[in-house]
Structure formats: C-alpha cells, structure tokens
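Recall the central idea of this unit: under ordinary conditions, the amino acid sequence of a chain determines the structure it adopts. In this exercise we apply that idea directly, starting from the sequence alone.
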Amino acid sequence: MPEADLETLLASPSTHIGVLRVDGETAGFCEFNGVGQPEVELVHFGLVRAFQGRRLGPFLLDRALRAAWSYQPERLWLHTDTHDHPAAQSVYRRAGFKAYAQRTETFPD
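Accordingly, the structure predicted from this sequence is:
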C-alpha cells in the first residue's frame, strides 16, 4: 500500500485499530473499518505466533467486538479464508459470527 494511502486510512475516524500487549510485548491486533457507520468490517485480526494457543485470541476478539458494537452498527462482519489459523473459524463462531456466504476464489499463479 502506498504510504499516502496508509496515512489516509489510519487518519480516518472510521478506522479503529486495537493492539493487545502482554508484559509490554505486542501479542496481537485487530483493525475495524467503517466504525460509526451502519456496517463495520473486521478487516484484520491475529496474534503473533509466540502468543497463539493461550486463549488470547478469544479475549482480544471479545474486547474488540464490544468496543465496535458500542457504536451500534447494524452489521459487523468479516471475511475469512483458508489462510487463516485453523482455530479461527471456531473462535469467530463462538464470538457470534455466522456464515453468510461461501465461495471459491482462484487467482492466477
């Protein structure tokens, strides 16, 4: 992403980024776009590999979703794919997400 585009994205009041720190070390983060609008997208969510498997993902997701829902959107959604961590789908389901659509996408090599 060009630096100017990144600066615009980060300066947007509808972009919210949360960072999870454990003992001062960055353990994970999440990014929401569209905060304050009817539809909010969880664009990025993840943990640093060293912090995976400690139940920190559900903790971070719960806190982040509570913050995003406090803006009272009509819909909060995310796009997931086969490159996500194997536990991601179950974490999202436990957080209340439901499958809306499923499709196969292909990209040229």
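The radius of gyration is 15 Å.
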